[in-house]
Amino acid sequence: MEYIIRKLPKGGGKPAFILYTYMGGAENAGFIAWLLLKLKGYRVIGRNWAAYPNNVVTLRPGPKRLWRCLDRIFPTGRDIAFIRDSGEGHPR
Fold it and tell me: Is the pLDDT assigned to residue 85 strictly greater than 90?
């Protein structure tokens, strides 16, 4: 959010596509990104989501080997194809 608010240049009607990634994240994050982009002047042409590993500090009980294995599972090939196809299906 800080990047969009402070550093992202004004959109001037440029298209934007939101890829909302999560692994147990806030459900309204996609909406907030959409709203901020609209306020910056971008034309949001679509949005989609995919499950990715956490990118914030978390407590991970259990052995490191278990978490290394779980982190390699996401995003799945199906998730990657889903997002690629979603982005390609929107006009520029």
Answer: no
Structure tokens at 64: 């490191």
Predicted pLDDT at 66: 85
The string of pLDDT tens digits covering residues 17-67 is 888 776 655 566 778 888 999 999 999 888 777 666 655 556 677 888 887
For the chain, give every domain's residue range: 2-88
4 to each of 14, 34, 73, 77, 79, how far by Cα in Å? 14, 11, 29, 29, 25
Contact at 8 Å (CB) between 45 and 73? no
Residue with tokens 């692994």: 23
Biggest distance spanned by C-alpha atoms of the chain = 49
Question: Comparing C-alpha atoms, which of 1, 67, 68, 63 is closest to residue 37?
Answer: 1
